Amino acid sequence: MSYFLAIRADLADSAARFDIFTASAAAMAARLVASAASAEARPGWTWKTPYGVPAKDLEPAVQLNQKEAESICRYYGKRLPTNDEWISAAFLEQRNNPPAGYVKGQRYPYPGGSTSTSSHCLSGCGDYKGLAPAGALNRGTGHVITGTTKPGVNGLFDMGGNVWEWTATERNGGYITRGASWWYGPDRQQESDVESKPGDIAVVYIGFRCVADAVKQ
Fold this sequence. Notes:
Blueprint: E1 2-3, H1 25-28, H2 66-75, H3 83-91, E2 164-171, E3 174-178, E4 195-197, E5 206-207, E6 212-213
Parallel strand pairs: 2-5
Antiparallel strand pairs: 1-6, 2-3, 3-4
C-alpha cells in the first residue's frame, strides 16, 4: 500500500499512492550515483542533458534504465509501480469526490479521461510544444515540463503521453512501460497497449514515477 506526496486525502485504493507527477530532473539531482551508470544512447544526451542541453529542474527525468529508476525510487523510500498498479491508477477513477468530468468507479479509455486532449503526444492530443531544440529530433517536439498538461484520472499528470514510464513488471525479457510518449499518437496511451522494453536501455522518451508504501495503522 502506498500514498501520494501531495494530493487531497479523498482518494482511495492504489491511485492514492502514486506520485502525482513523473519524476523530475530536480529530484534526480539528489541521486547523482545514477548519473554515470547509463551508456549514452546519443553523444551528449544524458539525464542531465536529455537533448544535449541542460535540463530544466521540472523536466521529466529521462535517459535512465529500469534499474536506475528503481534505485532512485528506493533512495526516496519508494518503488516503481507494478503494471497492475499503474493501470488501476491511470484508468480507474478512485477519488471519493472527483471534479466534474470524472465519476468514481468509472474506467476511462485514456489516462486523461474520456479523451486524450489533456495529454502531450505526437498529434491528436493537447496543444503543447516540447522542449527539444530545433533540429534535435526527426519526429515530434520532445517532452514538456511536468505539470504543464492538465490532470487526468485520479488527478494524475502525464500518465498518458509526454514520456513512457517504467514499471516493476517483467515481460518478454524486459519490463513493461506504460502511457506512451510524445513520439506517438493517443492510441498508444490506452490500457490495451502493453509495451515492454529491455531493462538496460536509457532513452529520451522513457521516464518513471514512484509509489510509496503506506505505514500500516
